[in-house]
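Hi R.,

As promised on Friday, here is the backbone we talked about, encoded as C-alpha cells. Could you run it through your design pipeline when you get a chance and send me back a sequence?
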C-alpha cells in the first residue's frame, strides 16, 4: 500500500507542474510566498486516530522565487517534497509561539491520550511522536489579502496579477483531495467563515442538533466516513469567546469522540 507521502507526491506533481507553467509568464508581481499544499506529517499512516487540522491560510509559507526557480530547473518535486519533513523539535517551537498550533497540539494529544497537560513542554516522548501524525491543511493555498495587509505586503503586490494567481491556485483548495488521499477520521476547520470554495465537489449534511455558533458546526460527508467539525480560529476564541485554551480543547475533543 502506498504511503501518505507517496500519494501526496504523486497527486500534486502533475497539476502543480501545469500550474507553474501557467503562471511563469506573470513574472515577479510582488507576492513573496510559495504555495501551501495540505499534507500529513511523517507518522500519519500509523496514527490511531487520523485527523486533519485546517486553517484559513498560512503566513509566509515558502518563497515565490524559490518555487519558480525549482520549476525552471526541472525540480518541481523538490518543492513538493520540501513541505513534508518535520521534527518534534520544530513542532515544539510552533506550539510555543502560535495559538493555532497550541490548540492543535493539545487537541491531538487529547484525542489520542485523553489528557490535557498545562504546558506542551511537558509532553512525553510518546506524545511528541504522536504529534508527527497530524494532518495539516488550509482552505487557501495562497494567502488572502487580509493576511497580506497584516504582514505589510499588500501594497507591494501588483493586485490584478495577484488575483489572477489566486484564482488559478484555487484548484488546490479542495477538502475533497484531503478526503480522497488521506481518509481522515475527522477534519477540523478553524475558520468560522462562509467561504465554501473549499467544499466544492462534496456533499455535506449538517447535524443541526450539534450546532453552537462560533463553537462548532458538525457535518457528515456523503460517500465518506470522515466527520467535519467546523469551528472558530484559535485567535477568535481568545479575543471574542474565551482565553481558556483547555476548555476549547476539551469541548472540541469531546465533540469528535461523541460521534
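Update: got your reply. Pasting your designed sequence below so it's all in one thread:
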Amino acid at each position: 500500500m502506498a504511503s501518505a507521502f507517496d500519494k501526496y507526491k504523486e497527486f500534486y506533481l502533475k497539476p502543480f507542474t501545469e500550474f507553474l507553467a501557467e503562471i511563469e509568464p506573470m513574472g515577479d508581481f510582488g507576492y513573496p510566498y510559495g504555495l501551501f499544499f495540505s499534507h500529513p506529517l511523517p507518522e500519519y499512516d500509523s496514527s490511531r486516530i487520523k485527523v486533519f487540522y485546517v486553517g484559513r491560510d498560512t503566513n509566509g509559507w515558502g518563497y515565490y522565487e524559490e518555487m519558480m526557480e525549482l520549476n525552471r530547473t526541472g525540480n518541481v518535486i523538490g518543492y513538493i517534497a520540501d513541505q513534508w519533513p518535520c521534527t518534534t523539535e520544530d513542532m515544539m517551537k510552533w506550539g510555543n509561539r502560535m495559538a493555532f498550533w497550541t490548540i492543535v497540539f493539545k487537541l491531538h494529544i487529547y484525542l489520542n491520550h485523553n489528557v490535557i497537560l498545562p504546558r506542551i513542554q511537558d509532553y512525553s516522548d510518546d506524545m511528541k511522536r504522536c504529534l508527527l501524525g497530524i494532518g495539516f491543511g488550509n482552505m487557501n493555498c495562497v494567502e488572502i489579502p487580509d493576511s497580506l495587509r497584516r504582514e505589510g505586503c499588500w501594497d507591494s503586490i501588483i493586485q490584478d496579477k495577484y488575483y489572477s494567481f489566486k484564482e488559478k491556485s484555487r484548484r488546490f483548495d479542495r477538502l475533497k483531495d484531503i478526503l480522497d488521499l488521506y481518509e481522515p477520521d475527522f477534519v477540523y476547520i478553524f475558520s468560522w467563515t462562509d467561504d465554501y470554495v473549499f467544499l466544492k465537489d462534496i456533499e455535506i449534511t449538517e447535524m443541526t442538533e450539534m450546532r453552537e455558533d462560533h463553537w462548532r458546526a458538525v457535518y457528515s460527508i456523503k460517500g465518506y466516513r470522515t466527520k467535519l467539525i467546523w469551528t472558530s480560529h484559535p485567535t477568535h476564541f481568545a479575543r471574542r469567546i474565551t482565553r481558556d485554551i483547555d476548555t476549547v480543547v476539551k469541548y472540541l475533543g469531546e465533540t469528535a469522540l461523541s460521534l
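One thing I noticed while checking it: The mean pLDDT is 91.

Thanks again,
M.
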